[in-house]
């Protein structure tokens, strides 16, 4: 399998991941708006984000945290949501790619999920969902 090396690779990966997230019972509610409006407008932004993270382009200018804070307000994310996101992202990467950048994509996703989890959930105190989490 090839490694992730281009924006086109990231687009393939993101389409694969979103297809799975839209059908996932844990993540689907958080992705419902994107599923309804479609990914075409969102995809360039996410390609910019992952190009910046993985390929060091510096193209992403948004605020991923602000978007997720708004989503958290509507959906009440828990550690389970972050765990599942990382699982689906990791398996999506592994379905399509292999190499140093692909491995970095899974490591960076886990770091991003931990940071989002910490910033969104910990200010309100420790979460006691009863569900074991790699982020707790």
Automatic annotation (TrEMBL):
SUPFAM superfamilies, per database record: Globin-like
Gene Ontology molecular-function annotations: heme binding; oxygen binding
Superkingdom of the organism of origin: Bacteria
Name the UniProt record assigns to this protein: Hemoglobin
